[in-house]
Design goal:
Strand 1 and strand 2 form a beta hairpin. The chain is an alpha+beta fold. It has a three-stranded mixed beta sheet. It has one domain. It is about 50% helix and about 15% strand.
Length: about 90
Amino acid sequence: MAIRQILKRSLSSEKRSNSTGSTDVPKGYCAVYVGESEYKQRFVIPVSYLNRPLFQDLLCQAEEEYGFCHPLGGLTIPCSENLFVDVTSRLRRA
């Protein structure tokens, strides 16, 4: 249930951003912000990743770190960019 709340807020933030034209996220994808420092890297990932157990581990980390208040308005994942790229590479191959 908590993961759904995070996702719902993140997607609604993305829709608001899309309506103003400030971001470009294709249908079926969502933007996530990744990094452990103040400066986060933005990635656009398929929504299908969100249901995968490997990705849900990252979502649980995000919930522990930020609760339901993500500082960038979108889903923020507090892990290294290298780890995130590794996880998404595994999901792409599976």
